[in-house]
Automatic annotation (TrEMBL):
GO terms, biological process: methylation
All copies of domain Methyltransferase small, residue ranges: 175-267
EC number: 2.1.1.297
Protein's recorded name: Release factor glutamine methyltransferase
UniProt catalytic activity: L-glutaminyl-[peptide chain release factor] + S-adenosyl-L-methionine = N(5)-methyl-L-glutaminyl-[peptide chain release factor] + S-adenosyl-L-homocysteine + H(+)
InterPro entries registered for this protein in UniProt: DNA_methylase_N6_adenine_CS, HemK-like, N5-glutamine_MTase, PrmC_N, RF_methyltr_PrmC, SAM-dependent_MTases_sf, Small_mtfrase_dom
Keyword S-adenosyl-L-methionine applies: yes
Organism: Candidatus Anaerobiospirillum pullistercoris
Family listed: Belongs to the protein N5-glutamine methyltransferase family. PrmC subfamily.
Boundaries of every Release factor glutamine methyltransferase N-terminal domain copy: 73-142
Pfam family, one: MTS
Gene: prmC
Root EC class: transferase
Length: 355
């Protein structure tokens, strides 16, 4: 059986999403060493892991099995990740192993003395190497938990972060206490905010906008996974909602609540060269010289799309609280307040349009 025939034994969705290096290894015929770079420290060595050797036999293909236990592989990965300064090394090593084996946490703990097949060992080491090179764990796994959802993520989308749940918590309070029925999410990305709101408050009418067709496709897939009805629009901020786009002269949709996690990082911020943001789409991160270009636009244009007593709420940088409060007050928003994230940084600001 050649490499392609071997891969046909696996679901197409599995092997098509492999790292290209792993795919080339698995598609090769005969015996071949797999270069596991940083994981072993000796590229191409016997200890670096192999693709299974396919030996011609009568009526069967023999695949050599690994002799390495799951626990040993995870512990090796933890050491390497810690050496590179990853704070959640144990968690990430286990998440990658659960991704390869399809085990949950309990299964991983109860099966950790089992030997991992050679093919899975090769894939695991390749994924660990991707992480060692800085690729965000969410992009490697292809998903991230947010609120009570597990969302698909891709390099076309920002990675949902726990601090954004502060916005969701406050938005749900407004929805419940002020009977906010129509909710708009600007720059939806994965759909994290609007899908969390719709999942927790199914009575709302949800609309979401994003400039990126690829990001919007991810959001739509996430909505379909949870059978959530959201009106997705492609375009820049409020543009897809303008009357000429609605097909009815003079008609402009009105909302009780507008939420957003817009770009808010200064274009020359040195943090853009650090951590996960190095791999995330720049257009979803950067907003002019002071990080407030898009927030200014949203604040000024939102009044035309808010019903009387409607709310605007958005995430911003830890040091932008005073500036965005001033913006909201200058435009005429009342009851302006800022919420702090889990690290006690000013993170989300909201205001109410009284007229």
């Amino acid at each position: 059986m050649d490499g392609e025939g071997f891969l046909c034994l696996w679901p197409r969705s599995w092997w098509q999403n492999l790292d290209p290096t792993v795919s080339r290894c698995l598609l090769s015929e005969g015996s071949r060493e797999f270069p596991i770079g940083a994981f072993s420290g000796r590229e191409g060595s016997d200890s670096a892991g192999r693709c299974g050797r396919h030996r011609a036999g009568v009526g069967a293909t023999v695949v050599e099995e690994s002799k390495v236990q799951i626990r040993a592989l995870v512990n090796q990965a933890v050491v390497l990740l810690r050496e590179q300064g990853f704070e959640s090394a144990r968690l990430e090593a286990e998440l990658l192993m659960m991704h390869v084996t399809k085990f949950n946490k309990v299964q991983l703990l109860t099966h950790d003395l089992e030997e991992l097949p050679a093919l899975d060992e090769t894939v695991y080491k390749a994924l660990v190497d991707q992480r060692l090179q800085g690729t965000p764990i969410a992009y490697i796994l292809g998903e991230r938990d947010f609120w009570d959802l597990t969302l698909k993520v891709t390099p076309d989308t920002l990675i949902p972060r726990p601090d954004t749940e502060i916005l969701v918590e406050k938005a749900l309070t407004l929805i419940q206490c002020n009977h906010c029925r129509d909710v708009l999410d600007l720059g939806t990305g994965t759909g994290a905010i609007i899908l969390a709101l719709k999942h927790s408050a199914p009575e709302i009418r949800a609309t979401a906008v994003d400039l990126s067709p690829n990001a919007l496709a991810v959001a739509m897939e996430n909505a379909q996974r949870y059978h959530l009805d959201v009106d997705f629009r492609c375009g820049s901020w409020f543009t897809p909602l303008l009357p000429e786009r609605e097909g009815a002269k003079g008609f402009k949709p009105q909302f009780d609540l507008i939420v957003s996690n817009p770009p808010y990082i200064e274009e020359y911020d040195p943090h853009l060269q650090e951590g996960d943001v190095r791999f995330e789409p720049l257009s979803a991160l950067v907003s002019g010289h002071d990080g407030l270009k898009d927030i200014r636009l949203i604040v000024h244009e939102s009044r035309a799309f808010l019903r009387p007593n409607g709310y605007l709420m958005f995430e911003h940088g830890y040091n932008q609280g005073a500036a965005v409060r001033q913006l909201l007050e200058e435009v005429g928003f009342a009851q302006v307040e800022t919420l702090r994230d889990y690290g006690q940084n000013e993170r989300v600001t909201l205001g109410r349009a009284l007229s």
